[in-house]
């Protein structure tokens, strides 16, 4: 189900994103917090980068025979993901590292 950004009124069709691709506002918030409004520049082309949200990555191989239950036995690391709108470069940061 799509959702509408309360900050910039952009329609977000992808429900897996918790952050607006247009303004960076988190889902359900009306305005950007001061820490979110700081612009992160791309190291490659110096264009502004947008926060795509926090993604979880798991270590090791998938336990195919156990299916989703096998995910309980692997270590997971959450990382904040930023992407450049111009060149497509993606950067990962520890959660909350850029919030201060």
Automatic annotation (TrEMBL):
Identify the domain of life.
Bacteria
| Protein name from the UniProt record | RanBP2-type domain-containing protein
- Source organism per UniProt: Shewanella halifaxensis (strain HAW-EB4)
């Amino acid at each position: 189900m799509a959702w509408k950004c309360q900050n910039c009124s952009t329609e977000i069709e992808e429900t897996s994103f918790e952050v607006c691709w247009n303004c960076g506002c988190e889902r359900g918030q009306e305005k950007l917090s001061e820490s979110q409004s700081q612009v992160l520049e791309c190291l490659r082309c110096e264009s502004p980068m947008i926060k795509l949200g926090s993604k979880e990555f798991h270590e090791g191989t998938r336990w195919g025979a156990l299916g989703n239950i096998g995910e309980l036995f692997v270590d997971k690391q959450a990382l904040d993901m930023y992407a450049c709108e111009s060149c497509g470069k993606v950067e990962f940061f520890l959660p909350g590292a850029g919030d201060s």
